[in-house]
Amino acid sequence: xxxxxxxxxxxxxxxxLDLFCQINQVAFGNANGTHLSGKxxxxxxxxxxxxxxxLLNCSTSEVIYTSGATEANNLAIKGVARNYRxxxxxxxxxxxxxxxxxxxxxxxxxxxxxxxxxxxRKDGTVDLDHLNELIREDTILxxxxxxxxxxxICQPIPSIATIVAAYPxxxxxxxxxxxxxxxxxxxxxxxxxxxxxHKFFGLNGMGVLLKSESLILEPQIHxxxxxxxYRSGTPFTAGAGATALALELxxxxxxxxxxxxxxxxxxxxxxxxxxxxxxxNSTGHAIPHILNLSVKGVKAQAFQAALSDRKVCIxxxxxxxxxxxxxxxxxxxxxSRDLARSSWRISLxxxxxxxxxxxxxxxxxxxxxxxxxx
Length: 374
Ligand code: PLP
Fold this sequence. Notes:
Elements: E1 2-3, H1 14-26, H2 36-55, E2 61-66, H3 69-83, E3 90-93, H4 99-110, E4 114-117, H5 128-134, E5 139-143, H6 157-165, E6 171-175, E7 192-195, E8 207-212, H7 237-252, H8 254-272, E9 278-280, E10 290-295, H9 300-309, E11 312-313, H10 328-334, H11 337-341, E12 343-347, H12 354-372
Parallel strand pairs: 1-11, 3-4, 3-5, 5-6, 6-7
Antiparallel strand pairs: 2-8, 7-8, 9-10, 10-12
Helix pairs in contact: 1-7, 2-7, 3-4, 9-12
């Protein structure tokens, strides 16, 4: 198998898995409990939390553990909307967001919130002038991802944060799920940050929401107190420990891995450029981990099936939006329905080997020739 879908999920690092097993064995008590075992578990969560805050340089944030970035995005968006509904009901986002953001916004829209989508420029980045035009005194939230999962475009988050900061009633939420552990990130002036360790060799079924201390969310899961007011239920002690270690391991090698992935992406683009019907949908602002492309005239599903038959794993749109409608993100950035229909995503990491890429190109060549011949 050639796995080129690391933006969807990554294998768990063995050190992370070891720690996960260890914590489950030695600190299995409920961290909400008041006996010794509970206190030990609570202490482990506290240590993990401190480590995460230090690694991400966000000492004033509260760390809320969830079941994934999907839940973290729901909590951030609905939590702000419901808690600050008397202040305003206007929210700004983009059409490049993950389904858990766009779905939460759609739900809020159905109950009377006003949602505006800021324009995206041809290079895939947010139009800051348009954001300045849209934002107003009753805007309570701007939610924009750091890097989108389909095209991999990295947004100008510090510039967006500066615009939002001029509006005291407005909070800034960043879904950084495709950025954390992959590229250097800057979290100044951001009130809410989502990420998910299974994107950086941590556990699946685990997510994190960083929340600035001054912000209050309406919890979305009710019943019982917990280590966090915002998330009822028995805390996932081993998950918290494993997340902190996964983050630590990635951050220690961030620069080196980024360089490795850049070299692989450059090589791949050079090879693919030799095919006249290949168009790259990821722009120059994309992170090297994600390469979105179209083979013009060939539906994405047909290309994916041909690759999949030969044991190559790539994805269409993102793992959470696999219906057969054309990609909204690709349509927005390229303006072409044909490219949107034929777009698919290769995603790389430092584990991707040169021989895997060479083998991929051989298979790609075969599929390209058979699917494009008249
Ligand atoms: N946000 C982005 C940008 C993603 O890419 C993903 C997963 O693909 C998610 C959120 C959802 O993550 P999770 O699987 O942890 O719910």
